[in-house]
Amino acid sequence: MDFNEILFEMKNRIATLTLNRPEIRNAISSIEIIEEIETACQMVNNDMSVNVLIITAKDPAFSAGGNVKDMAAKKGMFGGTPAQLMENYRKNIQRIPLAVHEVAVPTIAAVNGPAIGAGCDLALMCDMRIASEKAKFGETFLSVGIIPGDGGAYFLPRVVGMARACEMTFTGEVIDAGKASDIGLVNHMVSHDQLMEAAFELAVKIADKPPEALRMAKRLLYSGQSSTLRQLLDQSAACQALCHHTEDHQEALSAMFEKREPAFKGK
């Protein structure tokens, strides 16, 4: 597929999705960018040769979030009656949290600059975050008289805890990468010119793992957030039984005994 709003490539088990509208600070308002993000996520899910997805953006911003000019003009997805607006959110921007959250492989946000509003939430949708020293994060919806309409109220408390999520949401304060690191919003903060190197270094560590077991491990981590212990143990037992019968499990054991690096095939 030809992409216009994003850049997308898959290489060496690592997929990279890059928001490619720097002239509008990678704002996420058009149906085109929503569809392209959704399509890229589906391509990752359908390709067992991919083990990691990195989401990043062209400088100078990660994403400015929703297009406030469209909001002011009440056009595009921000136009219509209250009932129509509700459907616009459900049929447009809310497709992104569903697509990104349901990516079957581990996801890393490489945050190169300001991640504001829906841009902040896009970073939160990923499993892990690496921030450039130039990154900033803001759950700024209340500052423009709206609420997090794209799932921020789901993702933010799960990343930083309820008290921190309340503070960020209620104040709309924009925090720098250092503060984001202090409160656990990002896994690592690095210099701007080392951002993608650091993201790929983490991605390679993950990409080297057996594909089927990796996807199951991610599924179990998220299932554990809404399951009872007994439910999760039952699901874990079922997944473990499948893992024991994979060729990759046997390869891992053989490599360990033979003191060599394993060569996983996703079988």
Observed structural traits:
12 helices; three-stranded mixed sheet; alpha/beta; 9 strands; 2 domains
| Number of self-contained structural domains | 2
Q: What's the level 1 CATH class of the largest domain?
A: Alpha Beta
- What Rg do the Cα atoms give? 19 Å
Biggest sheet, in brief? 6 strands, mixed
User: What overall geometry do the principal axes of the alpha carbons give?
Assistant: globular
Percentage of residues in helical conformation: 40-55%
Question: Your description of this structure?
Answer:
- Helix content is 47%, strand content 15%.
- The chain is an alpha/beta fold and 267 residues long.
- The chain folds into two domains: 6-207, 2-enoyl-CoA Hydratase, Chain A, domain 1 (Alpha-Beta Complex), CATH 3.90.226; 211-258.
